Amino acid sequence: MPENADFGIKKIKGKALLSRISRPAKHAAGAALIVLATATVVALEREADHSGHDAISGQLNLNRDARIMSDLFQTPESGSDFAELDRIARIFLKDTDIDSIRIFGPTGDVWVSAGVPGAFENDADVQRLIHASTGSFSRDGRIYLALPMDQGGEQQGTILVRTTFSYGVAHIKSGMWKSALLALFCALFAALLVYSLSRRSKSFIDLATAAIKQIKPGSADTVLDDLSEIDPKLSESMMSLVGQYEAAIFTHQRAAVTDPATGLMNRINFMNLIDDKIKIYGDRSVVLGLIDINRFRRLNDQIGVKRADEVLALIGRRLRDQVEIADRSVRPDLYGTAPCQLGRLNGDQFAMLIPMADESLATEMISSVVGGFLKPFEIDGRKIEISVSTAAAIAPRDALSGFDLLKQAEMALERSKFDRMTKPFFYNRSMAEEANSRVRMEDEIRRGVENGEFIAVFQPKVEFESNKVVGAEALARWRRADGSAVSPGRFIPIAEELGLISKIGIAVLRDACMEAARWHGDNQDVRIAVNVSPHQFEDPEFIPAIYEALDESGLSPDRLELEITESVAVEDPDKVARVMRPLRARGVRLAIDDFGTGHSNFTTVTRLPFDVFKIDQQFVRALNEDPHAPAIIEMILAMAEALGQETVAEGVETEEQYKFLKRRDCTIGQGYYFSPPLPGHEFRAFLRHWKATSGSARLTGAA
Questions:
Q1: What is the C-alpha to C-alpha distance for residues 83 and 273, in angstroms, rounded to an integer?
Q2: Are 511 and 683 in contact, with CB atoms under 8 Å apart?
Q3: Of the CATH numbers 3.30.70.270, 3.20.20.300, 3.90.180.10, 1.10.3720.10, which one belongs to the domain with range 267-428?
Q4: Which phi and psi (to 5°) does residue 150 adopt?
Q5: Which residues contact 110 (CB under 8 A, 6 or more apart)?
Q6: In whole angstroms, what is the distance from residue 410 CA to residue 306 CA?
Q7: Distance from the CA of 172 to the CA of which of 87, 440, 456, 537 falls in 20 to 30 A?
Q8: pLDDT 10s digits, 466-490
Q9: Each residue of 83-134: pLDDT tens digit?
Q10: What is the CATH number of domain 57-167?
């Protein structure tokens, strides 16, 4: 039974009562008591349907929630800051049948008054209850209850609440029909026994009934004492029932204000807290900081929902510890009176509320807290690394309500994630226009996909040994209906967030295959390479779309080369192998893109069916700046040669880079040294010119 469940029964002289009753009468009394208990359940159901309830259930339920309040309320550390008490009181007014709450200090001064105005005014009975600091009485269909508010074993105040007799009916009603059937059976059986009892037995039943009706709030050591003298097993059963009921209600009350996975404040409670703090601190700043777990959905898919919930619990525990450490070290003067508070807003987003903090202090606080994520989490011996994105907004500078403040902070969080910032990004007013611009961009991207505005342009690939154009890479471009072009750096990240990148990728693939088929018709032996985004691997239509593009264009599969980034290949090599093997069997070539930028190893590379290594352009561009770049390139070239694979160097822009790569036996070069990306008709002209001059001179405009 929970510690806060505190019920008693008015003492009856049990031994004297038992001495007056014969042994058969005692047995019959036990049966009659069962009838009484079950009949009471049926009576409760009937009264609940008519919106009434008797005083017994009302007092029990009222006492329960008052005790829960007493556990939740904490004496304010500042003599004038009672906002937290008021906030919790209003939660109970909203979520229970309590209609009035008043909290008094140890000297009788009113700390909190919430609910019906004048509920406790000019009432002698109420005043006596306040002075006693404990007890209850009922009048005019209402129950009044006083309980002490303890802290550290000492009374720090008094809680006074009022409710109606209908309190608690909704919690009892659901199980009453089953009890009614049991009551009917027991009543029929017990009636035969009761009929044969003497007057003295009837007197016992009357006295036992009177005892039960006199149940009132009291101390735990008097719970059902007299019933235990009559029938210990019956007393134990009733105690167990009350304990289970109280535990369930207490859990329900806690769940209303806390997140079940982490034990932190839930979204509703936290949003109410933001509004309260904004009102309390007025012109003094209140900072809302957001901590977003990056790629948590993918982690959820990888380790399963149960394990992901365990990770969330660990994250919540570590955040709670880090917030307390940061609050004590960064804000020692405010820790006691205006502490930072933590909550979970949704699946992968947590929030910090930092009162009386400016942007600099909040940055230090948030950075200190997220520093705890440098250490990996461990589940069943498996280490899981978590990264986060952070952002913040400040009231009243940015907003005057919790809803608006959260909206501004989330807007800043999107910017933080987009720019991959390592420090908290704070909302500023210019972001409102940026947000509107982004919304317009999203709408235009959707229309562009529908209208076929996303096309392919082609950058030539030149073989170093023969100086021939042997291929081209298809790059996505967005040509709007008005002829204007949009940089891939602007639309690709937004398209990925909108889930449209797969559709754009398929459109570019089809355009590229159609164009490559034209080259073949012109007797140009040139392959086409197309990038594959990580999102396309999650699209079940990916492979069918490739087959369809090949069939529609008539392009031979061995003329198509798909480029997969190293990060995708390393993250789930088994999945990449499953997706690519049927394509490879059909003749499609595969290349690993941006090689050297991630964590590839020899084992990973040999497990996957790659034909080509693409050396990332950052190594090529660093040839004249980074002394390690030549060694890295030579290592990649040696690995490719050992595996019998081609190599393509991206980003070749100078003659020095060209000569170095040619001397090191790199297979193919690609970059502005040869040509920028070209539209289809210009690329065909480029091929004819290059072939006519045997590549002895590059196009003047393309150099």
A1: 10
A2: no
A3: 3.30.70.270
A4: -100, 150
A5: 102, 103, 104
A6: 27
A7: 87
A8: 999 999 999 999 998 888 888 888 8
A9: 777 787 787 777 677 888 888 887 777 888 888 887 777 777 788 777 777 7
A10: 3.30.450.20
Q: What are the phi and psi torsion angles at 107 (to 5°)?
A: -100, 5
Query: Any idea where the domains of the chain sit in the sequence?
Result: 7-51+172-255, 57-167, 267-428, 455-479+502-691
Structure tokens at 519: 């080259």
| Residue that is written with structure tokens 């003492």 in the block | 11
CB contact at 8 A, 53 and 165 = yes
Give Rg (Cα) of the chain. 38
Q: What angle separates helix 199-213 from helix 23-49, to the nearest 10 degrees?
A: 40
Q: Which two tokens stand for residue 272?
A: 């109410």
Q: List CB contacts of 667: < 8 A, sequence separation 6 or more.
A: 463, 464, 465, 646, 647, 648
Single-letter amino acid, residue 279: K
End-to-end CA distance of the chain: 83
Between CA 318 and CA 311 the distance in angstroms is 10
CB atoms within 10 A of CB 425: 24
Q: Is the model's pTM score more than 0.70?
A: no
Query: C-alpha dihedral over 167, 171, 177, 179, to 10 degrees?
Result: -90
Encode burial over 507-518: b for 16+ CB neighbours within 10 A, e otherwise.
bbbbbbbbbbbe
